[in-house]
Model the fold of this input.
Amino acid sequence: MADSATLEAVNIDNEAGNFTYPEDYEHDAGYGLTADTIDYISDIKKEADWIREFRHKALKSFNNKPMPTHWASKDLENIVFDNIRYYLSKGQKPTRSWDEVPDDVKETFERLGIPEKERKFLAGVEAQFDSEAAYSNVKESLEKEGVIFVNSTEGLREHPELFKKWFGKVIPTGDNKFSALNSAVFSGGSFIYVPPGVKVAHPLQAYFRINAENFGQFERTLIVVDEGAEVTYMEGCTAPKFETATLHSAVVELVAMKDAKIQYITVQNWSNNVFNLVTKRGMAHENAEIRWIDCNIGSRLTMKYPGVIMKGRKARGEVISIALANDGQHQDTGAKMIHAADETTSNVVSKSISVGEGRSTYRGQVHIPKHLKGCKNNTECDALLINSNSRTDTYPAITVRGNQHATQHEASVSQVSEDQIFYMQQRGLSEGEAMSLSVNGFVNDLVREFPMEYSVELKRLIDMEMEGSVG
Done:
């Protein structure tokens, strides 16, 4: 059981993320995306020439690529790229002292419980406000072991030999239209390097906060875990409720060297005006393990398919995901597992809940080529429908060539039983409480995969979403 201090640290309410502060930015790239926007960002950041060139090439790639159609959502047509601001910052440099964080930014993260969580159970924290990190800190003991945990701007500037080696290698700029967009205007995000043999005992966390209206947040995260090392990284995301569309388009690249382990945990609770279009992929070398644990709540549209390329023999990849789609929301989530070496193993477990007129979609890809031997894949997709108007779709694409592999796929769709709700109401629960209990029971085996602090928060987020789902 979590102690009372832990429970208090993650106590949240319905409107915890729904607040904003007056806009007072020192740097504003204005609306729209042109070559001048790229130069503005590069100038502000005082970037090396190769980064500026990288951005300009990415902009051309973005302009040349059509909007994705295979993602099957007309909602993308509502994104007007000329109406978005691509860079906003208060001019702050990330500080290692909480006291030096600007007051309005500090109050934002204090309201969300970040410093409390850092004191209680985290090994390091980065807090990003709009385009730039405001606070970045890692425990001294880890620094002494050679662990690097900084924002991506600092990573490029202070550790170019490490950063450049892997930057854009797991996810090429031209992978899709939104990875190209991120490559052109990226700002913020985390750079983590864990030296050989170092096992980081407590999680590192980044928290991404959108404060401004008509804004696009484009963090770029790169995590490299060297031979035999281990790390758990957690990210949280919120934005206040605006009437206008907000774009969040991140790129996350993970590299797990021989015998390394990376666990990447996301709990997002975006407001329902956010288009959340994210590209996440990891590369696992020999006997390495990469686990994506993903919880998607909120947003107008989420398109996210974490992937693992199992490059080395006996590498393992896993995606565990929970998606909850409420009225006016579409959670289009899934996984991509690319087997590229013998005796590699992948596991995908996806659970989705559709409420009201919400829509959830599982979109998966598993690829095992003919020349490999001894590969294994397990894919499970379970969907829960709360109302008769809610919708769920499953599109698994499993390509297995050769006869020396083992694969299995199972899927289920169920609806909350009226008899079950009636029975719980007879035991004194309200209809909303009964519904929440049913949903938490549906996802309970996956929630156990989250650290205790996050599983408590996740349960409360589900409770909040279910409050208005009945009737």
Remarks:
- The chain has one domain: 17-431.
